[in-house]
Inverse folding.
C-alpha cells in the first residue's frame, strides 16, 4: 500500500493520508508528470507494462504519485530513478504547470537532457520499453490509442509559448 498526502479542492494540504488507490471523495492527491526531451526536441516515452493499473501497454511520459511526506520535485526525481534508472538533480527539472484532475493535482515538469537509451535500467514491474519520438509522432500515437495524452497539452503549450530552442 502506497500512502499519499491528501489535499483539499484548493490544493492545500489537509494533514490526512490515504492509500493512493482509494482517495476519499472531496480530497485529492498529487501526481508528477515529467516530460523528457533531447536537444532535438524529441520526447522520451516509456511503454507501460501489460499489468499496469492504468493505461497498460501504452506509451507515456514518466511520472507517478507523490508519496506521503514527499515533495513533488523529490517524487519526480524518484520516479525517474525508479522507472528509468536515471539519476538527476532537482536543478535539472523545470516546473511547467499544476492542473486539477478527478482525484489529483498533476504537477508537470520538463527535463531537457540527452539520454542514451541503452544506458537506462528499466523497472520491469512498470516499464516494457523506451523510445524517442517527435512531438508529431506522439500526437499520432494519442490519436491511434497507443499514447497517453495525460499532461501533453501543458507540455506543448509551455514548449511553444516559450518559442525557444532546447539548449543542452
Amino acid at each position: 500500500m502506497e500512502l499519499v498526502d491528501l489535499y483539499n479542492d484548493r490544493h492545500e494540504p489537509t494533514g490526512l493520508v490515504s492509500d493512493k488507490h482509494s482517495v476519499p471523495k472531496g480530497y485529492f492527491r498529487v501526481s508528477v508528470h515529467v516530460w523528457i526531451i533531447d536537444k532535438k526536441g524529441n520526447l522520451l516515452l516509456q511503454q507501460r507494462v501489460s499489468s499496469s493499473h492504468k493505461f497498460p501497454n501504452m506509451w507515456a511520459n514518466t511520472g507517478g504519485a507523490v508519496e506521503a511526506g514527499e515533495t513533488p520535485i523529490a517524487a519526480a526525481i524518484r520516479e525517474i530513478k525508479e522507472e528509468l534508472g536515471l539519476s538527476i538533480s532537482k536543478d535539472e527539472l523545470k516546473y511547467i504547470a499544476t492542473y486539477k484532475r478527478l482525484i489529483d493535482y498533476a504537477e508537470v515538469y520538463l527535463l531537457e537532457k540527452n539520454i542514451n537509451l541503452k544506458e537506462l535500467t528499466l523497472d520491469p514491474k512498470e516499464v516494457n520499453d523506451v523510445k524517442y519520438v517527435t512531438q508529431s509522432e506522439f500526437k499520432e500515437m494519442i490519436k491511434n490509442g497507443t499514447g497517453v495524452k495525460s499532461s501533453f497539452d501543458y507540455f506543448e503549450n509551455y514548449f511553444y509559448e516559450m518559442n525557444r530552442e532546447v539548449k543542452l
